[in-house]
TrEMBL record:
<dbReference type="GO" id="GO:0046872">
    <property type="term" value="F:metal ion binding"/>
</dbReference>
<protein>
    <recommendedName>
        <fullName>Nucleoside diphosphate kinase</fullName>
        <ecNumber>2.7.4.6</ecNumber>
    </recommendedName>
</protein>
<keyword id="KW-0418">Kinase</keyword>
<dbReference type="GO" id="GO:0006228">
    <property type="term" value="P:UTP biosynthetic process"/>
</dbReference>
<feature type="binding site">
    <location>
        <position position="114"/>
    </location>
    <ligand>
        <name>ATP</name>
    </ligand>
</feature>
<dbReference type="InterPro" id="IPR036850">
    <property type="entry name" value="NDK-like_dom_sf"/>
</dbReference>
<feature type="binding site">
    <location>
        <position position="59"/>
    </location>
    <ligand>
        <name>ATP</name>
    </ligand>
</feature>
<keyword id="KW-0479">Metal-binding</keyword>
<comment type="similarity">
    <text>Belongs to the NDK family.</text>
</comment>
<dbReference type="InterPro" id="IPR001564">
    <property type="entry name" value="Nucleoside_diP_kinase"/>
</dbReference>
<dbReference type="InterPro" id="IPR034907">
    <property type="entry name" value="NDK-like_dom"/>
</dbReference>
<dbReference type="InterPro" id="IPR023005">
    <property type="entry name" value="Nucleoside_diP_kinase_AS"/>
</dbReference>
<keyword id="KW-0597">Phosphoprotein</keyword>
<comment type="function">
    <text>Major role in the synthesis of nucleoside triphosphates other than ATP. The ATP gamma phosphate is transferred to the NDP beta phosphate via a ping-pong mechanism, using a phosphorylated active-site intermediate.</text>
</comment>
<dbReference type="GO" id="GO:0005737">
    <property type="term" value="C:cytoplasm"/>
</dbReference>
<keyword id="KW-0808">Transferase</keyword>
<keyword id="KW-0547">Nucleotide-binding</keyword>
């Protein structure tokens, strides 16, 4: 399996609870390496653009409000088959359905305030990385 990259967001529920280090440790312990990182407060336009694929979903307005409710930490993660590895350590979207030991099972508050985002394909990872980082900001 090749070393690849994925995109991660540590969501506002985690920055509010001051557990970004704990989340990052769980990512690192799973075999992922942080090769780019910054903390920012998403604008409404940034959050709407990022989640445009969900624009027609009933939870879209709530999701945008949540994602702009506090700072986030955006990261590029590198590792063996990084997209799948990250999704595995994140756990299911709804923490009630997530496996024990996953970030969402251990730390998420709800299906919305679920602590982390992770790209769902290599194609989307590349799009999402480019949404937040210039090539020279990613240092492997
Ligand atoms: P993500 O995109 O954040 O990595 O999460 P995901 O793939 O597991 O879930 P997705 O279906 O892409 O949904 C994006 C985010 O929207 C919120 N959500 N709320 N209220 C609801 O029913 C609901 N469903 C999804 C979550 O924050 C989810 O991560
Ligand atoms: Mg998703």
């Amino acid at each position: 399996m090749a070393v690849t990259r994925t995109f991660s967001i540590i969501k506002p529920d985690a920055t509010r609870r001051n557990i970004t280090g704990k989340v990052t440790t769980m990512l690192e312990d799973a075999g992922l390496r942080v090769v780019a990182c910054k903390r920012l407060h998403l604008t409404k336009a940034q959050a709407e653009g990022f989640y445009a694929v969900h624009a027609e979903r009933p939870f879209f307005a709530d999701l945008v409000a949540f994602m702009t409710s506090g700072p986030v930490v955006v990261q590029v993660l590198e590792g063996e088959d990084a997209v799948a590895l990250n999704r595995k350590v994140m756990g299911a979207t709804n923490p009630d359905n997530a496996d024990a030991g996953t970030i969402r099972k251990e730390l998420a508050e709800s299906i919305e305030a679920n602590t982390v985002h992770g790209s769902d394909s290599e194609e989307n990872a590349a799009i999402e990385i480019a949404y937040f980082f210039k090539p020279e900001e990613v240092v492997g």
